[in-house]
Design goal:
Length: 362
């Protein structure tokens, strides 16, 4: 069994492999002068495919695919694979997320979320993409704001059994859902607070600065959400949300992740927002809930003082029978746990700032 870890950084992509998730071989950088904000590993077919968003300051942004675990890379014949139609007046900057829907008949479909706010659909495993016009033309779009990280759709959560249902989230616009395969979209932010809004608009229909959403693997109607301020759970597929932040040391952070095989288990990496946006108490910890957010337990990744935070896509699992938990930080370290966060080993260090991590068994 081989574990593959893809690490997107501010200066390239690194691929790491391991047989035991303790000792890792890390590649030299690929796309070395590119920001890699999104990477996906598609394991729905026998041959895994890696999909990478590479953002070159000289050549511009593009999307690349590899079917041989990074030995060679392909770009669509008519580059770039993602480009706004002329009538939109928009310019594609980068992809922030790739998603691979699970329902039967969707094996070749890949979704991408981009900056500026747009959703894209590929029917050829991520080689080329078409703009999802229904979301781009949503009447709310003119009022979506730009978060500190950029105006991006950074979260795509397909339903595991129903191809008609999907949830997306963005900064700054909130959560939107479709139940008709993307023909229409509804804002779904009931219960999510926005303290930065003026006056009494603390619970608006939309405009929330969502940082990440993750779906419970065993209960697909349950979702977990990390807001700009606030951690929430939904038990009705995102139609409404309830706070689960009371037992966390701070409700600010970027990442949240559901366990791939245990119902009610999720992970969060709190950040000290009001003070300095360093890890809370200057310790690199992941917090785990085993009761869907009613309580949280802090798990030390490192005991020493630490100053690198975990970004929204720098927390992932590998989907193994005994899953690994992967934590990447802005100071270029990646840590791995094979026991649900009870202990960690370092898989990579001294890399450029880690923007995203993805892992799979290949």
């Amino acid at each position: 069994m081989t574990y593959l870890l893809a690490i997107g950084t501010g200066k390239g992509l690194f691929l790491a492999t391991s047989r035991d998730r303790r000792r890792w071989e890390v590649s030299t950088p690929m796309f070395a002068v590119n920001g890699v904000y999104a990477v996906g590993i598609d394991t729905r077919r026998t041959t895994p495919r890696i999909v990478v968003s590479a953002d070159s300051a000289h050549f511009g942004p593009s999307v690349y695919t590899s079917d041989d675990l990074g030995k060679t890379w392909e770009e669509a014949e008519h580059a770039p694979p993602i480009a706004f139609p002329a009538d939109t007046g928009a310019t594609y900057k980068r992809a922030w997320q790739f998603a691979f829907p699970a329902p039967a008949g969707q094996e070749d479909v890949v979704y991408a979320g981009s900056e500026p706010w747009a959703l894209w659909r590929s029917a050829d495993r991520g080689a080329s993409y078409e703009l999802v016009r229904s979301l781009w033309e949503h009447p709310h779009r003119a009022e979506w704001g730009e978060g500190a990280g950029g105006p991006a759709i950074h979260t795509i959560v397909p339903h595991p059994a129903d191809a008609r249902r999907m949830l997306i989230a963005m900064s700054t616009g909130g959560v939107y859902r479709t139940e008709d395969g993307g023909a229409s979209w509804t804002a779904s932010n009931t219960g999510v607070k926005t303290e930065f809004m003026p006056g009494d608009l603390h619970y608006p229909e939309y405009g929330q600065c969502i940082h990440k959403v993750s779906r419970d693997s065993q209960n697909p109607e349950r979702l977990y959400l990390q807001n700009h301020g606030g951690v929430y759970r939904s038990d009705d597929d995102g139609r409404s949300w309830t706070s689960i932040a009371d037992d966390l040391p701070t409700d600010f952070g970027f990442s949240i992740l559901a366990h791939p095989s245990r119902e009610g288990v999720a992970f969060n990496a709190p950040v000290a927002f009001s003070d300095n946006r360093y890890p809370y108490d200057y310790r690199l910890r992941v917090y785990r809930t085993e009761d869907a957010g009613a309580s949280w337990t802090g798990l030390n990744v490192l005991d020493d003082p630490y100053y690198g935070i975990v970004l929204r896509d720098a927390l992932c699992t590998d989907g193994a029978e005994t899953p690994g938990l992967y934590v990447g930080t802005r100071v270029g370290d990646v840590f791995v746990s094979a026991d649900d966060g009870e202990s960690f080993v370092q898989a990579a260090g001294h890399l450029p700032d880690v923007l995203c991590v993805r892992a799979a068994v290949v």
